[in-house]
Amino acid sequence: MRLSNQRFIGLDGGGSKTYCVIGDGEGRLTFLSRGSSSNMKSKPWTEVRKVLSESIMECWDNGREEESELNTVFLGMAGSDRPEDRERIGCFLEELLPSNREFVVRSDALSAMASGTWGEPGIILIAGTGSIATSYNPATDEYHRVGGWGYVLGDEGSGYQIGRSGLISMLHQFDGRGPYTAITEKVLRQWKMDNASQLITYVYENEELRKTVAEAARAVLDSAAEGDQVANRIIDEAIGELILLVETLAGKGSRREERSPLVIAGGLFDSETFFSRFRERAAERLAGFDPVRPEFPPVIGSYILALRRADIAITLQVRQRLAESWNALRGQIKE
Amino acid sequence: MRLSNQRFIGLDGGGSKTYCVIGDGEGRLTFLSRGSSSNMKSKPWTEVRKVLSESIMECWDNGREEESELNTVFLGMAGSDRPEDRERIGCFLEELLPSNREFVVRSDALSAMASGTWGEPGIILIAGTGSIATSYNPATDEYHRVGGWGYVLGDEGSGYQIGRSGLISMLHQFDGRGPYTAITEKVLRQWKMDNASQLITYVYENEELRKTVAEAARAVLDSAAEGDQVANRIIDEAIGELILLVETLAGKGSRREERSPLVIAGGLFDSETFFSRFRERAAERLAGFDPVRPEFPPVIGSYILALRRADIAITLQVRQRLAESWNALRGQIKE
User: Is A153 on the interface with B (CB under 8 A)?
Assistant: First the structure.
């Protein structure tokens, strides 16, 4: 098998966008395509199918060369938890692409992890609007998860939970049940309101309740950075919850003894306040785990996992080629 | 003014039913009507209007006598918080009924309170699917509230919050993040599930998410009664939150020094476990408040408030007539 002739496709199908790359077996990426959301839980299958086929075919048509062969396609997809979903995608890919290739469908969280571990086993902690921690060993396909039970039953430590706690503190101050907090003024300013009771209509009549509540996390983070006690308690609790997700996960599965890389992703970590406090607490409570924010987007993780699936070692040379070719392609992602 | 010739109408417009009674100025009830929901927040105004006019006219046509006069109508209505809503109801009643009468529209919580205080000033604590505490002085119309900010931002100590905490504990056990709890088995049995991860589809794809989550409170209460530690912590916290609502309210308004009657209502207090534990904690933390469950439904509170509005004293004799005539009418409520 000549690796420079083989082609590998990695796809990241998320809630708002779908990215797809194609490259050879030695780390050279040759094309990047971009489509709309392909989350199977929030879009009808006919639409997801259309986005997938357009993204993949655009990559395949533009990124291969004469006489090159398709080897493996790795799709990291949001909302692909159920075996039925994966089978449906598999069948559709077999119609779409040259047959006898390997098609792998897994959660988009695993792609995000691989983009930080170069395809080595590891743990990913995601804290955006929601939260979840997942461990994955690409070699054995062993997978575990903790958390991620959604805004009503879980998502501890997420932007939604931080925002919700902030809004609740604000209403407790308003009611006289709780102390003063700087969160109040910040939320009122952010949402152009006169007083806390206006939250009710704004939040409950909002089509995107989850997103709206999570937006209030900004006010909590800013208040915490200024030393507000209520906000600091909320942030500390959230970080404690996220640490607990990782701790619990570290005790699961066969890799119990080893210290895995801990990849962190999601909008909350974009806040330097949050990231640095998380890192401090992780150093205390998660000895041996050094949280890293991946340099590459999840679509690169998918491509790396496609290579791993074909037993290709991600050598230093492969990494260098990958980084160089990605830098050449990434301009396209910004339109 | 001959009080036996005067007629007073009390209406309780709730989320599932509307009750209406008519009686004279001396405590004699003569008719009870029943209609569907008249919550202005969950039904279009044209429908609410139809339910109100049918309920009231049925009472007026059947409960008055020759030469009797309409004096006051008191409507306790769910979802009537905004002044615009009250004005709209007021205008419509003026068209419907003999003019120059007094029409009063207030929250249905105040009717529930009056049914327990015989129209004296007091506090009502409601803990059903949601929770809220309200104080009201019928003589001055002074009104305060604490809590009741809905399932996302408030409702502390409610059935929803207890159910939610129970389901979260169950998922923490499932994840390995939390200890064993008897809640798990009870919820799985109640909802005919094999394991906790099935909660996700069941809860999030349910049209009545709030009600569904609140149903899990039953499993928490049963587990607490059997000594389950996790369940007991949830129940203790919920009771603490409810006590805090009352404490905060007791510090508001002009009646700070006096000990008001504390009326309790809502489905949670139907549980003897919950009621007796609440009463114990109230005795410790709310000195002077002795929680009472009203003997009468809120529609009777509305009628009492109509009498109070006309400065009629609720003497022992009035109370006796009211209790007797209500016992004669209440059979109708059970069809």
Answer: yes
User: What is the CATH architecture assignment of A121-260?
Assistant: 2-Layer Sandwich (3.30)
Each domain of chain B, given as residue ranges in start order, spans 6-119+295-334, 121-260
**Chain A residue with minimum CA distance to B152:** A164
- Summarised one tens digit per residue, pLDDT across range A243-298 is 999 999 987 765 554 567 899 998 899 999 999 999 999 988 887 788 999 989 99
- Kindly list the residues from chain B whose CB atom is less than 8 angstroms away from the CB atom of residue A168: 149, 153-154
pLDDT in tens, chain A (335 residues): 688 889 999 999 987 789 999 999 999 999 999 998 888 777 888 888 999 999 999 999 998 888 889 999 999 998 777 788 888 888 888 888 877 788 999 988 899 999 999 998 899 999 998 899 999 888 888 889 999 898 999 899 999 999 999 999 999 999 999 999 999 999 999 999 999 989 988 998 888 898 999 999 999 999 999 999 999 999 999 999 999 999 999 877 655 545 678 999 988 999 999 999 999 999 888 877 889 999 899 999 999 999 999 999 999 999 999 999 999 998 766 54
* Contact between A100 and A73 (Cβ < 8 Å): no
What is the per-residue DSSP string for B41-84? TTS-HHHHHHHHHHHHHHHHHHH--TT-EEEEEEEEETT--SHH
How many angstroms separate the Cα of B100 from the Cα of each of B63, B69, B95? 20, 11, 11
CB contact under 8 A, A152 and B245: no
Predicted pLDDT of residue A208: 86
Contact between A147 and B204 using a beta-carbon 8 Å cutoff: no
B288 contact A CB<8A: no
- Fold agreement between A6-117+295-334 and A121-260: yes
Task: Please tell me the class of the A6-117+295-334 domain.
Answer: alpha beta
CB count, 10 Å around CB of A91? 11
Whole-angstrom distance, CA of residue A202 vs CA of residue A215? 12
Burial of B192 (0-12, 13-18, 19+ CB in 10 A): exposed
User: What DSSP string runs through B150-175?
Assistant: HHHH--TTSHHHHHHHHHHHHHHHHH
CA dist list (Å): B7 to B60, B99, B117, B140? 9, 14, 22, 23
Q: Which CATH number fits domain B6-119+295-334: 3.40.1280.10, 3.40.190.10, 3.30.420.40, 3.40.50.1820?
A: 3.30.420.40
